[in-house]
Amino acid sequence: MNRRHFMGAMGALGASSLFPYPAFATNLAPNYKLGLQLYTINNEMIKDPVNSLKAVKEMGYEDFEIFGFDAEKNTFYGINADEFNAILNDLDLTVSSGHFGFSTYLNASEDVLMRFVDQCIVGAQKLNMKYITWPWIAPEQRTIDNFKLMSKRLNVIGERINKSGLGFAYHNHGFEFEDHNGENGFDLILKETDPDLVKLEMDMYWVMRSSNYTPKELVELQPKRFVLWHIKDMDKITKDYTELGNGSIDYTKILPDPTEAGLEYYYLEQGGNFAHSPMQSVKDSIIYFKKHVQQYVYG
């Protein structure tokens, strides 16, 4: 189903699209923590997690989406989950979501999959997370049949995680929007997953780079479902990642209404292509974000 037909099937555009973003920005509750996806500084976290957390806290980051969970050892960056939580508490920092390695279990038996899900739940609860997130599938898995299988598995996993008191979300890249003889993975996920069980993490870089949608249009299709956001910029020439403010994405114009989206947490992120170093990039991005973008999220 193409974008135009799918949007028609999902209903008419919301009235919010008739107004520029600042018209409703003042209605937003300014209670979001300033977040960072820790994959951005993954090498630094592996080498020296404590001092890396201290450094980004000094920059102004308060909340994180974590990466690097070892399910068998119940560790993050080689540190036992209980000990890692104590570090966070000592620094007065929080982790609200984590990216977990579900793609390995896409074709596993349900017993094996549920064992991994339960391990993720234990790890997430140790860090007082609110969401467990499925971040991607491997290149060789990106077929329509596998998107259909994944959608079924997302519902099953979401039900298990929701019963534990946590939320569950799926994070998009660009491959979900690729056409497969008139179908694409993202439309399947929207249609075949239960919005009550499976929330969505919108990576706005990938939406702007790879889809026929805008972030606002996605929210109009599935209001209140995009509870997590990734905010990162796109190089004007190569279309690779870049620091906020260095690229082509104008967040003052493309950000959806956070209330309509259902936003709970957002994270700045840069997956690579650093101008100098990861630490300098997250510093440059937060400075730009606070000056030019934050008002559109917080109101």
UniProtKB/TrEMBL annotation:
Species for this entry: Galbibacter pacificus
Highest taxon of source: Bacteria
Keyword Cell membrane among record annotations: no
This protein's UniProt keywords: Isomerase, Signal
Signal peptide (UniProt feature, chain positions): 1-25
Name by which UniProt lists this protein: Sugar phosphate isomerase/epimerase
Keyword Signal carried by entry: yes
InterPro entries given in the database record: IolE/XylAMocC-like, Xyl_isomerase-like_sf, Xyl_isomerase-like_TIM-brl
GO MF, any single term: isomerase activity
Domain Xylose isomerase-like TIM barrel: 53-255
A Pfam family assignment: AP_endonuc_2
